[in-house]
Request: fold
Amino acid sequence: MKKFQDFIGTSVIFEGTEGSGKTTAVKYVHDELVKKDKPVFMFKEPGGTYFGQELRKLIIADHLEHEILDPTARMLMFYASRIQNLKINIIPHLEKGHIVLLDRYFYSTHVKQGFIDGNFDMINGVERSYENKLLRSHPDFLVYMNVSLETSLKRTQLPERQDQITFFENQGKAWRQKDIEGYGKVIKMAKEDGANVLEIDANKELDVVKNSLDTLVEQLCNHN
Reply:
């Protein structure tokens, strides 16, 4: 029954609501590690594999042409993508001692499909039935991009983002507030469970955020 800490590689998961700057943070850390010649790979969820990328088109689509996607169906598609990514990418890289950066993981599922959609019974069933503990294993580093509702909404409403609006970004102010509250609960639970959490004030300017991420880069260089 493997956990992330059982591998010689290093796992880093980035979490945060829409507009938190999470994806920008993942790319920044990746690029800084590449500059230092570290073996680093990053994967966005859902995605990471051909199968995952095809699922991603359906999962994050603001609407499907002929039907509404059931919330439980969307949740199970997340797990299908995640399991495939584990098998094809994450586990092999960690076994080789590489650094793996994940743009979202089970914490997002617990927030969006658990706290908001109320699917915790099915979430627990799927995660407990999987062959190892990796569907609910804390990583070596958990980076939480903590952002306010106001900043989150402002960023996702920028004109340059309007051609890439996802289902989740289009759920409105009340949903986004629930998402942020859900993250607060999930990260608190992770800390209580012993997770190594780096919480970053994502409301600040990018240069300030990068200073915090530079500390993470240094830790990863020493850890790996």
Summary: The mean pLDDT is 93. Residues 4-223 form a domain with the Rossmann fold fold (CATH 3.40.50.300). Strands lie at 10-15, 40-44, 99-103, 141-146, 197-201. The longest strand covers residues 10-15.
